[in-house]
User: Fold these one by one.
Assistant:
Number 1:
Amino acid sequence: MHTENPACVKIDNAIAAFFADNSNLIEKCPYGNGHINDTFLLRYKTPENIEKKYILQRMNHNIFKNPQQLMENVVHITEYLRQTILSQGGDPDRETLNVWKTLDGANWYQDSNKNYWRVFPFIENSICLEKVESEKDFYDSAVAFGNFQKMLADFPVQTLHETIPNFHNTVSRFQDFKKAIQEADKNRATLAKAEIAFALDREQDASILTDLLAKGKLPLRVTHNDTKLNNILLDADTHKALCIIDLDTVMPGLSLYDFGDSIRFGASTGAEDEPDLSKVELDLSLFEAFTKGYLEGCAGSLTKTEIELLPVGAKLMTFECGIRFLADFLTGDHYFKVHRENHNLDRARTQFKLVADMEAKWNEMQSIVNKYQTL
């Protein structure tokens, strides 16, 4: 659900027929720029000559090992959001995704090749932004993700499945990293000697949040786990946030994961794979804009401890991403796609540079959080 592809390619209509009467199908085209699922735009004409659009997706079952459980999560979350939005006088057809059922009433379809498919009604007059273009963009995205957290604050989180087990379990990720060191290509390990040392020096940080969760000092919540700007649909006219999309990684977690990943991705002054580390630092103005917006959106639904630990969430999600990039580099670049030599090492270096800059600006980050903690 990003930017419409003008070069529509005619492809087999058989899958779409399980979701609607193909006699009214005008066109089916590749759509968007997602890297995980295959996405198509379906265009129909009703007997009254009204055009309707839908998004058809093939779920990537290589990454999401249990698409049935994934769809249970998506259906439960979207139905809950729909009822919440209705109770608040909103428009649930625009303010949340809605799963379109197959002709026999199912929420997904499995074809003869064991691929899993789903359909969502297209949300008209909406756009996505691929990158932060202003502090206001970042602030607005924070309000949207905070509101998502608030609306789901009372959702029975224990009913959700883990679509990717241990996705943000930093202790588990660190164990994977140490295993990667043992299995590393020697030349690559030599090249990444400084980065390996940087990560090992911070091993104790990996368990901060999981320990607090285990002790009951942090609440388990519904988390999105991919809180990038392009996972928010905006009204094309007003640019106001409409709804959160890409719900495949919605599962039990910590609010600090969603806050932290947004800061990691959106408040850095450099690209995620910037080779010139002098261009990479934490933009405190963007950190402040997101903190303010997120806490406004959450509207009192977070605990005092969660709010105090927002800087920890930012640092830890950045650190976790860095060790994942580094582990992949050490073992031959099998997970993240690479487009140049040492690409994953460059990515790890940017994350670690950002971690180091957060450590240098720690007092300022805490002061910003304190400034807005009563929102």
Note: The chain has a mean pLDDT of 92.
Number 2:
Amino acid sequence: MKIQLSDHFSYGRLLRFVLPSIVMMIITSIYSVVDGLFVSNYVGTVPFAALNLVYPMLMGLSALGFMMGTGGSALVSKTLGQGDKAKANRYFSMIVYTTLITGIVLAFLAFVFMRPLSVLLGAKGEAMIADCVLYGRINLLALPAFMLQVSFQSFLVTAEKPRLGLVLSLFAGVTNMVLDFLLVGVLRFGLPGAAWATGISQMVGGFLPFLYFLDSKNSSLLHLGKPSLDVKALVITCTNGSSELMSNLASSLVSVLYNFRLMALAGENGVAAYGVIMYVNFIFAAIFMGYAIGSAPVVGYHYGAEHHDELKNLLNKSLRLVAAAALVLTALSELLARPLTQIFVGYDPELWAFTCHGFQLYSLSFLFSGFNVFGSSFFTALNNGLVSAGISFSRTLLFQVAAVLLLPLVLGVDGIWLAITVAELLCLLVTAGCLVKLRSRYHYA
């Protein structure tokens, strides 16, 4: 039976509805993981470190796609809940075309200035700088498509087509893995091969849903029509999605800071170890992100329809599910730290031991991060971008920057690995405070 946004959600129905989004986010996170796996094992430490230096910038540029997707889906789902399907489709079309045009502009500018950007990101030596420029410029060719892909992850859920989103993401992910195997593992094209594998798969993931929504005969709630500018709706979209923009930009900036600190304290091995930890973190964090993306349109719909009892139901069930996931993921990350890091850097015993130790400390953050990801997304879905952005800003920038700058002064490299856990714990207090303070305003408690 098809699950609709207007339904009452039991645990089973909620999990079935968000599961495609969770898998979709995991597949998206695999892009960098597969690249890193092949580059680390087939190309070498310097290209692997270069990839890890450039990737945060690429994710930072794609953050606008996350903003437009999450902020736009909050507005569109609320409008659907209010019963105005025609207006919802006008908003949807405007947001998609704005995302595409902005992606083209950002890609062009970053392509031109890729070399100085690589130096700013911490690349040292001509070999590493050249690798950063090469990998970055190839990936920038696909940036507009990648921005569409991440925005459609939210819109496909709003269109009541989460399974289609899963299929499209799975196809893109498989494309990436197959091309990495062929171009890097078999044909030995090295770092350019990994970059082309990612870029082509992102084009697949971005343009296929674009073509689907262009088809006026598609069976979803949303269709791409003639674009028209609505400045007020665009501002609301950007405001709603500002937390996701802040979260992704801040994560990219903090990753750059981590790399700088690790380069100073541990050299290229530090950057390589952080890259491996981030790959595993991407997959685990994708579970929380996928749940947030999958549940947000449901929250937005019932908020627009003023179904207060269902909002309370969704919040209570979500908090319990996040708590269960937090315990399971933390336990798994501790148990799997050694075999997971072995896959990436097992060829170097010293680097492997260093990475494994760092991952065991870093993974304690999973106890708290899910609540903060969901809390920010929950307020985005309620069209309260200010509170959502405040949670994201505290979590991804304010507390992390302070922790990564201060803790190493006392704990050395271990302070860098523990910085994320301290930041997530402090942000959890902020998230809990916002949920308690605003409960009477939104009638979810």
Note: The chain has a mean pLDDT of 89.
Number 3:
Amino acid sequence: MVAKINIGSSLFGALSYNQQKVDQGEGKILFSNRIIQNADGSHNMYFNIKSFEPYLDANKRTEKPVVHISLNPHPDDKLTNEQLSDIAQEYMDTMGYGNQPYLVYKHEDLDRHHLHIVSVRVDENGKKLNDSFEKRRSEKARKELEEKYKLIPAGKQNQSNDLPMKPINLKDGNIKKQVSNITDTLIRDYHFQSINEYRALLNIYGVTVEEVKGEVRDKAYHGLVYSALNKKGEKTANPIKASLISRNVGSKALEKKFISSKEALKDKKSYNRTKQILSTLLKENPSRKAFVKELAKNGISVLFRENEDHRIYGVTFIDHREKVVFNGSRMGKEFSANVFHDLFNVKDKEKHAWEPFAPYSQEQYPNESLGGFLDMEQHGDNYEEIAFTNRMKRKKRKPKGPKL
């Protein structure tokens, strides 16, 4: 089981995210503690919020008083709703939240059913709960629950090549719902600092995003439009405005995500795992195919951006265990695009620029082509990459002068 703790300042945001799953038939409330209920035992947003108000009103100093916890058993762990409720309660008791108001939601929108728990980090007197060694205590609680309920340990889950969720399947229909599930999850769980990095992450799951800018009634407009991709990487079906999905995946939410990600990654510690794996792998001078395959075994996806001459001018890594997306140059010059171009130059003349994360590569993204992925990269604002492409094109021009 994987446990993840997020803290924030918006109770409404945490509750509405989970309530949306309930309203869409993709989730349910399994258990609640110290939450006002309707006469029939059901819940509603009004009473849910009211139950937390005394704690938040008493809070004076804690800037982020809301806690949003996810507990993720392995798909092979077959658990009843009663067992899931018990697991959630025991985890909250161990973490010191047993006397707090909290709601336990079961999400059923993914093949991997999982729990979300919303609570507050201040008591009824407004005093902050003890969060010392919180990560260490969470690990201890997780391991005890794994042993008690015979769950697959988190370590073994991390050794799997499976993506956190499945890519878009056009045959399943309801594209909007699929796109919504993917975008909500990725924005919530991953760190990325640019639209290009976000787009690279989306492409693993058969989705792309474009920025739309203009003026409406003399006011500047900046929005996002999402599209599903077919097996060739081409946009298909009708594009979907972010506003039709949720405000959690719109341009304002994305800008906030860039800022929070920059802050979270400023010490660059999250890059260390990928950096260590790359350093070891590059010493072996691997072929491009072997390089991508070995990274996939370690839960890392890689995107190479190439121009028409197959010159690699950009490389982006996605570490699915650390949940981070970043350009190679952020780790140092030894991981820049030029290094990989020189390494793979002639012997690996592959026509495609994207090697998707195993095991869905053959099913969702055949190696024959990438289709519109390179074109979609140009819709972002990575001017350095665009300028490099233009410089390469200018080198092709013949010198002007009279014909002899």
Note: The first helix runs from residue 11 to 23.
Number 4:
Amino acid sequence: MVRMSKEWPEEGDLIVGTVHKVLGYGAFAKLEEYEGKEAFIHISEVSSGWVKNIRDYVRENQKIVARVLRVNPKKGHVDASLKRIREDQRTRRIQQWKIEQKAEKLLEISAKSLNKTLDDAYDEVGYIIMDEFGDLYGGFESASDDGVQVLLDIDISEDWANAITDVAKKNISTPEVQITGYVNITSYRENGVEIIRESLQSIEQDGVEVQCVGAPKYRIMVTARDYPTAEKILKESADTCIGMIEENDGEGFFQRELEE
């Protein structure tokens, strides 16, 4: 189980769980990142459409991603929803969880090199790394890219810093992710075609590619080392493109997913 630095998720968080009980009115899932906690998904939160048989949508041992609606520490579970998530969010969250599983394994390897347990590793350095870098993988990635000093700077002992850096450099390569968004842009000037072309060319750069889906829709594909960076570049690119169109008596809007 990948561990989180906080005891409970927060409202709005995307959580990963494994369904262990399905009843007529809802399903229960053990949370993969919060030991001893579970999520309850009411049948009304399983799908946006009418659900005749809940087992058509969830089953025991199924891995799910859900959005937290409410947190109830007294009952030891959270109320969650399966229907309030886009498919790209679900895919990204599962990928993030798998990456953190890998990072936990790397932490365990680091611990063994010092004759320590995984529990020791979390207590002595794991939670420090998570608080500083956002997650375990971020710490290993930074150690791989920048060396042992990045860990020494956050008061991790030299033994741990050397062990983690050694494991990181042997096991982590710089990742790349790709995301896609769409701009719908129209220019009403006589030279509108040229204005649109210039607005699209203005955002093309390393890691940003533009394709025509079919006027007035254009696809923006962004490749970056991680999702937060990619999302930031995508938004900035779309804003720049639409801004140029609007400055030239046109209009436009951004879509994260292409509507049928």
Note: The first strand starts at residue 14 and ends at 23.
